[in-house]
Amino acid sequence: MKTTEFIEIAADLDNPYLQKWKAEGKKVVGYTCSYLPDEILHAVDLLPYRLRGINTTSTMIGDTYFGPFICSFPKCVLQLAGEGQYSFLDGAVITPGCDSMRRLDECWRKTGEDYPNSAPDFFHYFGVPHKIVDYSLDWFVDEIRDLINAVEKHFKVKLEEDRLRASITLYNNSRKLTAKLDQLRIQENTILSGSDALAVILAGTALPRETYNMLLEDFLNDVEGSKKESNGKKKIMLLGSVDDSIELMQTIEGERAVIVADNLCFGPRQNVNFVDESEDPIPALAKRYLQQSDCPRMFGLYKERLETVKNRVTEAKIDGVILQNIRFCDLHGSENGLLERDLEAAGIPCLKLEREYGPMVETGRIKMRLDAFMERLDK
Amino acid sequence: MRKEIMEYDLDWTLWSMMSNASKLSNSTDKELAYLLKYMPTFSELPALFSAFGEAGTTFFEMAGTYLNNILTARERGKKTAITTFCLSPAILYAMDVVPVTLELLTVMATVMWERGTADYLDFCIEAGFTETSCSSQRGSLGAYLAGLGVDIDFIVNDSPGVCDTNANAFAFTAAYLDKPFFQLNMPSDLTSKRATDYHRKDFKAMINFIEDQTGTKLDQDKLREILEEVKIQEELIGEIEELQMLTPNPSPVEFSFLVYSTRFLFSGSKEGTKGLRVLLEQIRENAAKGISGLSGGVEKSRALFCYIDHYTTDMRFWKMLNKNGVTHLGNILGRSWYEDSPLPQHQGNKDESFSIDTSNMEAMIDTMGAINARMPMIKSIRGPYDNPHMWLDDNLALAKMYNVDFIVYSGTPGCRNTWGMVKLFARDTEKQGYPTHLMYSDAFDDRVESWETTQSRFEEFLQVRRLV
Amino acid sequence: MIITGGCDVGSLTSKGVLIRDNRVIGSEIIKSKVKPQNSADAVMSAVLEKCGLGRDDVHYWIGTGYGRDKIDFVGETLSEIACHGKGAKWLMPKARTVIDIGGQDAKTFKIDENGKVERFITNDKCASGTGRFLEVMARVLGLEMEEMGRLSAQAEFPITFAASCTVWAQADAIKYLNSGYNIEDIAAGINNAMANRVAVLVSTIKAEKEICMTGGVAKNAGVVNALEKLIGQKIRRIRRQDPQLAGAIGAALYAGEKLKQEKPI
Questions:
Q1: Total domain count for chain A?
Q2: CB C204 to CB B125 under 8 A?
Q3: CA dist list (Å): A235 to A184, A256, A258, A349
Q4: pTM of the predicted protein model
């Protein structure tokens, strides 16, 4: 497996493996947030598919339902749904990742009333708490059970414990492979650009997991011997709002930089913690998924996140940190303000960047900032 | 921030203004006019006194006391907590903590000053906060981030699950000022047993947190006293809401603002009860005479505000309503969910409302938790807008009960939550026959849309939809 | 004698500067054309003609600004932040903080004793607070940019403008004009709104003395005065050359350093 193939898969909503899956009469369920345990869907033979908003040419439909002061990511997802591009979905699970994302629930349902075949039959709201304590964990366990019940009822399936355990093992294997990928990125003179690494991870969000693990393993075996190309490039860590744009990563990397680490929710971060296979599967999943403090939706955990970033900066020998946020993303936007203050104080150069999700139409504006930042790192 | 602004603490300045304003009621018209030269941008002040007499004075006294409590908390050995209007201050009063409710301070400054809170709003951005974040917190938060206010001991917030931008403001503050932080989480439904159990556990955890911060245990007698006062207040508000159903509505347009402000300032405290009694008295008088509370005396149209009001300079929003003969039938901030109040009575679902049980400590904590779970926004915009007991349900019921002619959304561009669903909401209310106007302005910052534009769009709506 | 050139192709205007022996021997400012290459060619030809020089007389060009990657005659390119830093240092040797308002961006940055940029911040996505904002508003009022500054000094009751959105502010300006408000008060309101947006950036970076302002907006006294009031510090006026040329001057200076085999930046 070559990077180009992952890039091809990542560049489209649809891919040959997905088509084959559908041709076999199997179902696909879309979801919006890294706090949803894929294993649950996988264990009942549903393909968990992470929703994206790529390749939009307008947000006319998105803007019809959402108000003007809303993040462009859910607007783009809704746009694609309204255009019928998500017609391969058999279900959708919406999570309160943030306010803009959770209102995708209503906006999508209403779009479904106006545009035929734009909303799947199965809609489920998956309530993830914003803190990590014993009773919020209990709540989350119940949410998982609710999701299971809803899925079982709608798709007429039964979740068997041994199937769930097998899914957990499969996804844990996937995490081991992603951790390897991650290690490759932070090596001296890394062979992997950030945009390539993103493509590899994005492909994983749209492929059957068994297939993905195989492809990823192949890829890792092949890539380890390849030529090292990033000599002398500035090592960048990318933080902030949801980002699945290979083009944005390429713009940032340009000729002179390589993104070797990130904490993005489409990044490797959701693959680094393992589900405890010795525990009861559902509580084990609950712990693994709720106890991710990476996203600022988990309020009050800024210090933990700062520590994680600082450790990563040291480990990956980062030259500069880029803090980006989609306009109206207050969670990441303001956290970026805190990170800039604290990282700069620790001598780590930072660049704050506000952008839109969707087609890159403001390359000039972004490039001006990036160039000046690179010149600063050259000093 | 401008140098001259850095010379004054926000809470002190507001206190000085409010407490002095409350004394002005004893002045002659001439004296008042003279003093107003020093407050040229708050021309509504005399109107508040002359039209409402005691109601105006009492309100300023109350605000002065609230601010004085903040200023003197330290010397009285009390802790201060930055908090939100979504959290009932009653529990803080019961635990001897002085609430510093950001949105209240923002509104006070926004209403009184022509420049509004521009300097504080912008200082938040200097501190790293996003300019797209909600202005209702930023308007006063900037002062506390800049050190222009009393020292704060800790932060309590209850909007996670309801409003991210709100929750985020408090989480940011905790990180920026390095203060202890507690958040209550709200599940997306209100009435299930699961949600109730979660509220209970969460609320108890908050009490434990506050006890740790203050070093004192929640006192049963004090809690009972507060809850009994809450009950009296909710009954008063219930009666006000009942009277507002009359045609014409005997309540002056400004009173719904004064009612919810009073509850935000002093829920469960004697001061608040006094304030509400004064308001109710005047509404009763008008009702007995069968007259409208509008300054022009003629009610041309009845408006329900589905979210909040508009607070920039000089109470001009209410002035505009008076001018156009539009009566104000309340908004999301004022509604009472006490079991005997009109809306819960009309809805007839016991789980949706709260009752007050002071028989023992457990029951009282549960009561307090239930009240808190029904605070503005917390109650009705936690879940999908079209779910039972949520935003649409509440407003359609109110529209019917209050015989409203139209519905208005006023909010802020910082509100991801409502802007994520208000277009759908408006579509549904229009379908039900209620013309619905969406205001694109920022209720706390007229630099977003000038007031002149806001007003002309509002009046255009009234004309085009033949509402006046 | 070595002659170097700086070509700054911005979104609204393009600037060309020639430097010999650390002195500006010619400069030109033109309105930008649709294609950056055409703007660059036009401004280069104009400045060469002014100095009576031919293309081959200039030893090295450096390009900067939005269109810099599309200029074929430059030896290399640098970001406009770097060039404005360098240019500001040349224009005002004691400068440590530079405020540069360009057509699409407002930037504030700190420079070291060599004019190298230490830290910078820029405006958010929104166009308000940029040169574009003023241009749109000036057009509504039928004024030149410099007139806006002059007129706003005569304002008695500046209007408070909604500054968060260029489009809305434009609608407001039209309404005020139609309602018969004084043009001076409207102009002052616009300048104040602009200054408000920029002041946030200046305060965020914690400006140090001396503060100077580059870019075309530096010529609008209304904005500069309002900004001084807001940040509570004096902004030193650039007199040595037109402040709008700072980026092109910086580029030409870097070109000179390049020829001296000094590593640029």
A1: 1
A2: yes
A3: 13, 9, 5, 12
A4: 0.92
